[in-house]
Amino acid sequence: MSRKMSVSSVILSCISAVLLGVSIFFPWWGMKFIAPQYPEGLDIIVYPYKMDGRIDIINGLNHYIGMQEFSEQTFPELSYLPYLVGGMALLILIVALVKRTRLLLLLVALFSVGGVLGLYDINRWLTTFGTNLDPKAPIQIDPFVPPILGENTLANFVTHSYFATGAFLMGASFLLLVMTLWRERKK
Amino acid sequence: MKKLVSAVSGVLAGFLAATVFFADFTNIGSQSSAEDSTNKSNAEKVYVPFGKLDEYYLFASGGHSGQMFIYGVPSMRHIRTVPVFSPDSATGYGFDKHSKELMGDYTWGDLHHPAFSETNGDYDGKWLFATDVGNSRAAVMDLKTFTTKDIINVPNTSGPHCAAFVTENTEYMFLPTRFAVPIGREYASLDDYSQKYRGVMSAVTFDEKTEKLNIAYQVALPPWSYDLSDAGKKMSKDWAVMTTYNTEEATTNLEINASQADRDYIILFNWKELEKMVADGKYENITGQKMIFPEKQKGGIYLVPVAKSPHGVDVTPDGTRFIASGKLAPSMTVFSFEKAFEAIKNKDFAGDRNGIPILKYESVMEREVNPENALGPLHTQFDDKGMAYTTMFISSEIVKWDPNTGETLDRVPVQYSPGHSVAAEGDTVSPDGKYIIALNKIAKDSYLSVGPSHPESMQLIDLSGDKMEVIQSAPVNPEPHYAQMIKADKLNPLKIYPKEENRPDSVWKQEDTRIERKGNEVHVYGVALRSKFIFDAKAERPDVIEVNEGDKVFIHLTNIDLDQDITHGFAINSYNLNMEVQPGQTNTLEFVADKAGTYPLYCTNFCSALHQEMTGYFLVKPKK
Questions:
Q1: pLDDT tens figures, B208-229
Q2: What is the ipTM of this complex?
Q3: pLDDT at A2
């Protein structure tokens, strides 16, 4: 297992690192709100370092159900996530350069843990916002947790949560890494 | 086998019986089916389903309503009314600070002829100009916001009916007057009409940056009535033409007395030359204006004799000809710019009138066009092939004819008595053809009755086939004079006002709202959002304004819902105040709290599910 990685494995790992690094600049996750009055939909688009979309309007509407306002400042993750992801990409690159198969295993493990933590984090926020509703809000609704992926209906809004380009790049990066590990194991 | 045969024949017999008894043969080949299919295809031509938009904007002048009506073509649906010269409580126009200042003390206007800004003789979709015959003003509307940006009072002029027309690159908008008055509108006996009265024309410029209208210079033309006008195009772009009546200089009973002379004049002038005269100091300073007196500062202005009391004069898209409509004479006269330039060059004049040289009719006229039994020609529009369409007020029709030959090509009756008509970009260097709309003065029984007062009528005519065909009719409030029709994709209106954080008096965060007192002035810097007003975030009741009787109150309100069509209104009950605040807009009410008491305030423009709760109080403490 502590053999050196093959040239093709090194190239694959490098591609994996680049994909992960590039993913920082693309949206990872989003939610689209569609209502009869908003057939064009209102978007929340999450990048590792910023949020885009029509946050002000969504906040304005959410206040009717007593949801807390959110903004980029609400999520401290946005300030360090790009460095975490960038650091991970750098680690992959370093492993590719030192060509240690055993380190490759460690990378995949780290990547998996990071991914699970990420999903947990999104779910935590969704739960926080969906369940901490102001009891004095004009419209009373039961606490709810929108899904990380898929459709949810709330009052006149149907929300669609989805993973976006950045997440797919990250996924591709992960798969490449697993593939590299698999190739090295067979040898 | 036998069973099968009887079963099949039974079914067939059933079908036959059903066909005989229930099928409808009544409209096979009948007249009504042909008519139905025509109507159906006409309906299809004008039907614009939800999700689709009209192909053209129609800007119809609102006449003595002082407003501008915006319609969609071909649906002929009324989309919006934009107030220009008259107050409008629906939009708070004439109530909020900016529009109140624009309106001055005027409470009505007579909006006549609208004109789009042009680049190279084509509509550029940026601005719309309009004139007020009632109170001698001119206005400019921004086509990004569909709001009036500036209004200018035009001195020395009374009723700029003969406007507005803009030059090829919107260098000038000229405003010739309908009524002659003494300079400065001072008192002068009508016995001195010919000596002391003048028909002053103004050259107005527009500064796009400051969004202000300005008078560059004026021309003290003879005391005649100036009726309609058009700017030259292409080869005639430095020139303009306008019709006159009452060259008799009658001072009473104009119906008779201004219809005596066989010929009146078309004024032909070179605005580049007038501009140069002003630059060279060839003018007099009078009432604060640079005034050219044609009998003293000579050049640039000529008279072309024309059949008596003409109405419209329209320049062909190629700019080579101008066509005068007879009104009282049953014909259109086609004049040649080229011939006119030649005559001017050769000084081929037949004397002068009031110091202005007169060109010879024969040397400028190209042909007289007299469609059989067509009466009362008023205005001419053009299509993409350069063909002319003239409205006939008296014979109630539109006549299509060829300016190159004078041949009548087609005629279509309209109901009833068209004044102007407007074709798709029909007064530009490149008309679109496709549609023309007759702006009829009389509707009579065209629509459901609303009593003795009638709407006016607009009829949409399809120009795409061999024959002109009326395909839609729409009532319209009094009263479109002229209109402009522009391809919808030339306009790019704002959906919301941009968030300009440095805009004076604007507030963008709830916590920045505040009420400041300076002596007896109270300045409110508030926000409106779904579904509340916040005037002072730190106050116990953020939606309450409390002042003392006699205070001067400034309420600056910013709509921070940056969402399309989330308009908020702001009214103070019993204080006769209401304004509109569009998404992202900051609007100001300025007034004196001269009535002590308790006045609820509320959002007047339905904004949200809790719009009814969007209220507060305006409390005025009585003087001790």
A1: 999 999 999 999 999 999 999 9
A2: 0.85
A3: 57
pLDDT averaged over every residue in chain B: 94
Contacts of A57 in chain B (CB under 8 A): 561-563
Say yes or no for a CB contact (<8 Å) between B530 and A138. Answer: no
> Is it the case that residue B159 has pLDDT exceeding 80?
yes
- My answer on whether B163 and B298 are in the same domain is yes
- Distance in Å, alpha carbon of A47 to nearest chain B alpha carbon: 23
Pairwise CB contact (< 8 Å): B610 & A57: no
Position B150 in a domain: yes
Nearest partner of B588 among B610, B548, B558, judged by Cα: B558
Do residue B530 and residue A61 have CB atoms under 8 angstroms apart? yes
Q: Which chain A residues are closer than 8 Å to B613 by Cβ? A: 138
Spatial contact of B60 and B80, defined as CB atoms under 8 Å apart: no
Residue B251: Cβ within 10 Å count: 18
Taking residues B54-76, report their average pLDDT. 98
Averaged over B419-431, what is the pLDDT?
97
Q: Following CA atoms A90, A92, A94, A97 in sequence, which dihedral angle do they give, to the nearest 10 degrees?
A: -140
Whether residue B465 is found in the same domain as residue B435: yes
Sign of CA dihedral B111, B113, B119, B124: positive
Report how far apart, in Å, the C-alpha atoms of A72 and of each of A45, B4, B574 are: 11, 79, 44
Contact B561 A138 (CB under 8 A): no
- Per-residue pLDDT, averaged over B261-278, amounts to 96
CATH number of domain containing B382 = 2.130.10.10
Residues B413, B288 share a domain:
yes
Assess if residue B49 is contained within a domain.
no
Residues B470 and B532 placed together within one structural domain of the fold:
no
Separation CA B289–CA B308 (nearest Å): 32
Low-confidence ranges of chain A (pLDDT < 50): 1
CB pairs under 8 A between A and B: 15
Query: Within an 8 Å CB–CB cutoff, is residue A138 touching chain B?
Result: yes
Residues B522 and B456 occupy one common structural domain? no
Does pLDDT of B27 surpass 60?
Answer: no
Does residue B282 register a pLDDT over 90?
Answer: yes
Domain CATH for B514? 2.60.40.420
* Domain total of chain B: 2
